[in-house]
Amino acid sequence: MKNDADPLIVQEVSPRDGLQIEPTWVETVDKIALIDQLSLAGFSRIEAGSFVSPKAIPALRDGEQVFQGITRRPGIIYVALIPNLKGAVRAVGSRADELNLVMSASQTHNLANMRMRCEASLVAFGDVVSFAADHPVRLNGSIATTFGCPFEGKVDEDRVLQLVDAYLALGIQGVTLADTTGMANPRQVERLVKRVLERVGAHDLTLHFHNTRGLGLCNVLAAYEAGARRFDAALGGLGGCPFAPGASGNICTEDLVNLCDEVGIHTGIDLPHLLRMSRQLPALLGHELPGQVAKAGRNCDLHPAPGYIATL
Amino acid sequence: MKNDADPLIVQEVSPRDGLQIEPTWVETVDKIALIDQLSLAGFSRIEAGSFVSPKAIPALRDGEQVFQGITRRPGIIYVALIPNLKGAVRAVGSRADELNLVMSASQTHNLANMRMRCEASLVAFGDVVSFAADHPVRLNGSIATTFGCPFEGKVDEDRVLQLVDAYLALGIQGVTLADTTGMANPRQVERLVKRVLERVGAHDLTLHFHNTRGLGLCNVLAAYEAGARRFDAALGGLGGCPFAPGASGNICTEDLVNLCDEVGIHTGIDLPHLLRMSRQLPALLGHELPGQVAKAGRNCDLHPAPGYIATL
Fold this sequence. Notes:
Chains A, B: InterPro entries: ADH_Zn_CS (IPR002328), Aldolase_TIM (IPR013785), HMGL (IPR043594), PYR_CT (IPR000891). Chains A, B: Belongs to the HMG-CoA lyase family. Two copies of one chain form a homodimer. By secondary structure, chain A is of the alpha/beta class. Chain A has one domain (9-311): Alpha-Beta Barrel (TIM Barrel). Chain A is 38% helix and 14% strand. Chain A has helices spanning 14-18, 28-39, 63-69, 85-93, 107-114, 118-132, 157-170, 186-196, 216-225, 253-263, 271-278, 281-285, 293-296, and strands at residues 9-12, 45-50, 77-82, 98-104, 138-144, 174-179, 205-209, 230-233. In chain A, strands 1-2-3-4-5-6-7-8 form an eight-stranded parallel beta barrel, surrounded by eight helices. In chain A, helix 4 (85-93) runs parallel beside helix 6 (118-132). Chain A is globular. Chain A starts with 8 loop residues before the first strand and ends in a 16-residue tail after the last helix. The mean pLDDT of chain A is 95.
């Protein structure tokens, strides 16, 4: 492990990718409270919601109210996921700082998720770019199924690079490589991150890993060692995948921050604050969460020795 | 990641470290069936039980019957955990191929777990070595809390190396570095494994990681890259830690084998066979298990695309 002087930037995505598949409705006021608490934890980026069809993602149908209700702290970029121009207009109207567009590397996944072919997604992104040019908003493009598709299997790495180039050609500066259903492995990550970093600066590249097959943090370390510096993660490991009932979702923010604290990679994030937040999630959502450190505590949270050892 | 031509050896420990804290009694016949099924999966080593006080570990009080009931397959080493000479006599009487002795690097943990000081443990091991010299049995020495102690916190690496030297001086050839409560991090693992490999050959060194804080597989990769080649793991991620209720236990065998398959490290283990076995554990034990791949499937287990995409 090298370059540990370089901070690792965590973009917290629990309010968006975390909550979007929760079956329990989370009240707008609770979403706002979650984001406001996250804003106090030291994050520089929070994906705070999405502006998609309320029919497609009913759990996030209150995007406007959430973005308008949060207390914005200076220096934090509040990101909104959008699927198209209509979403972009709503997000800009709600003062999102950054628009995160998404399409899949795999044609079948794009058809299933966006209900259009990849080519049509790129055309629609052109409209978003034109609109955004007239507004003070950043753009990021996510590539879902970068590391594998649950319908098609392996995804050609050259295909991913072509989409990166297409984003850059459109004028979309930030790029997220997303392991949507947790199919990435560390060797693949190392290889692809190195290739993408030849095109995109480390400050513009985000890695989005899911822990579906238990490899999320391994993939973070592999990407970090290959030069990546920004990672999505969700409090408690919120989120999930409709194809893996019971399996983990996003990599867990507090587990990632604990890893960084233990190996000496700076994140600027307050782990005890995160742990207090994470431990409140089961009451909010009605189920346990996959995060480990919230259950086990930090290494420095020592236990009292059993009394009987005094008599030995 | 280098040296991928070198196989990674998985020692399956679910029958011992996995079952020992299960609150549900597992019938002797079911333990034997579990081990016999594991013997068909491609493992070269299985920790099949322990010979400790039935009062201390009631879940494993049938060690003799288990070792006498299993169908031994040629080439597989069936290991027994033992705490002392009495356990060694029982294990050898039950034809265990290898005795795994255990003490802790931390004095407080050894007092809590073995009810004696570390010095007394080493004296007792001398008796086991003398006894074993007259029998066809291998010896391995485990060092619990190698990477941290839940009572004392950080463990001095020189202390661990002194215990490795003490084992070697006694004539104990195999050494296991055990992360008993999941406190290890990849950088620490890399550093310590390199130092221990100056004393112990890679074929005699085992790493035993728990996934208590989500870092188990990260630590395996760090150890593998530092030259370690043998790892303990438990089917389904069985096991656990009394200090971390709800947190994961041992690293999960099928998740580890899936990682190796994906990155191209040879294990010789039949992953589909393991997944079938793991998926039967919840019915046997009455609860879900932390393993991920048993829930998510392998990457190559593709899903049918939704029917509506044909109409788009």
